[in-house]
Every structure is written in structure tokens, then in C-alpha cells.
Amino acid sequence: MATQIGRLNTLRVVKEKEFGVYLDAAELGEILLPRRYLPKGLQIGDDVEVFVYLDSDDKLISTTEFPKAQVGEFAALTAVAVNQVGAFFDWGLPKDLLVPFSQQKNRVEEGETHLLFIYLDNITNRIVATTRVDALLNREEAPYRVGDKVNIIIGDKTNIGFKCVIDHRFWGVLFFEDAFRQLRKGEKTTGFIKRIREDGKIDLSLQEVGYKKVRNILDDILDYLDAQGGESPLTDKASPEAIYAVFKVSKATYKKALGALYKDKKILLSKEKITKV
Predict the structure, then answer these.
(1) By C-alpha distance, which of 245, 115, 244, 236 is closest to 178?
(2) Containing domain of residue 124, as a range?
């Protein structure tokens, strides 16, 4: 497999020097892994997973420290410096990630957090990023069905909810009613496809959709009651935060689960507590 600049690669140690080891990167030649990044016990002939990028002198180098995102991925990162070249973002490596002025949708200021797409400049082989992300998403028909589990990145907050990047390929919307806990821009989490609209737009949920999400926590509630001696103050009047802290679901889902358990005569409900029968 070809070695990819800006991504994780598994490479073989072929040479050892006082300052580090060299890895076989096939068509890219031998790439240095500095000694400070060497895993304990690494020897010639061993394979090691590294991230390959260009150092401050634009020379290929590798590291066992991994960035917050790789080439071909989206990430919400914070600008740590701005100069005459562009804005530089912290992405978890010693060399910050450049967003040139030409790739800024709006002028970036130091301290701002922006959703970026990271890519490899084919001319310079430099890893750079862009805030012009809209045209990079929804370029194909979404392959999802309602209920599918997906990976999402929380983007900008709007007047109806949060814009989210789905699987680094599509835009989605997480409405406030389905965001039952505090979210931060750039957070990576798991979501579920709630609805695919006729115009192709995708609505998301942080929990499984339909009755399945209720069914999945019924045993959790009963186990929790056993652990609490058969009683719990987490009634249907409890705060959403208290419910989420224990069961990781919304208050609406929790109330439906309590109703199902009550109907099956597995719990008793009062204003002060729930009791296992």
C-alpha cells in the first residue's frame, strides 16, 4: 500500500541512527522517525504506526503522535496565530496547520474555532486546510436509512439546532429537541439518522429512533433500581441533566421507559420516587 502524506501509515524500520530510525515509505523513500517518538523496544524490522507529514523545513518526517484529524477529514479547530500567510490552527502536532487567506470563507481571527477540511496541496505536498467546506459535502446521494448509526462532528449552532458533519461526507441537522445534553463545537460523537427529507436533507438524533431507544434502557432502569436497593428518586420529574448523567438518554425517552415498566407492573411510580415491584 502506498504511503500517504497526512495520514496514519504502518511502516517498517529499516535503519537506526543516533537521532532516530528510518522507515521504509516505499515510493517516498526513507522517512525519519525522531528518537523522542520511538516506542520502547522498537527494532530494525519492526512495523510501527506513524503519521507522515512535512516538518518546518518542508521535509518528510514521521511521528507516533497523532493529530486531531487527518487529510481528507473535517475537524473543528482553534486558530492560534495569524500572519501575512494565513491563519494557523492547533491540530495536535508541533507544526500548526495552515489555512491560507485564499481558503478562508470569512477572515479568521486568532482564538476563533472553525470547521475545517484538511487536504494535501498536490503542487507543494504541504498539508493545509480550508474553511470553505460547504461545497465539499453532499456531493452524492446519501446512502442512509432511518435508524442508521453514524459518526458526527458538531458544527455551528443555528437558530434551530446544530449543523453537523456526517461521516466526513454529508451535512446533517441536529435540532435542539434532539440535543438533550450540552454540546460543543467540534465534538465528535455518535448519532442516528432520524429523517431523510424529500430534498435530501438529513435530520439527526443523539439516541436511537423509535421505540427501540426505549426498549434498550428498560433493563438498565431495573438494574439501577437493584443497585439502589429497589428505589430511586429519578422520577419522571427529574431534570434532564440528572437523567442523562445516569442513563445517557433524553428525559422524553426516560419517561416513555418508565411508562412501559409501569404498564408491565414492574415498577411503582410516585411523586418522590420509583420503586421496583
Answers:
(1) 244
(2) 74-134
CB neighbourhood size of 113 (10 A): 15
- Work out the angle at residue 68's Cα, subtended by the Cα atoms of residues 172 and 128, and round it to the nearest 5 degrees: 85
Return the biggest CA–CA distance within the chain. Answer: 72
CA distance 172 to 79: 25
Q: Are 153 and 75 in contact (CB under 8 A)?
A: yes
Q: What's the CA gap between 167 and 3, in Å, rounded? A: 23
218 and 184 co-located in one domain = no
**pLDDT grade, residue 274 (50/70/90)?**
confident
Instruction: Read off φ and ψ for residue 203, nearest 5 degrees.
Output: -100, 145
H or E stretch covering 51: strand 47-54
Domain boundary among the residues 163, 181, 205 is at 205
Q: Tell me the whole-structure pTM to 2 decimals.
A: 0.73
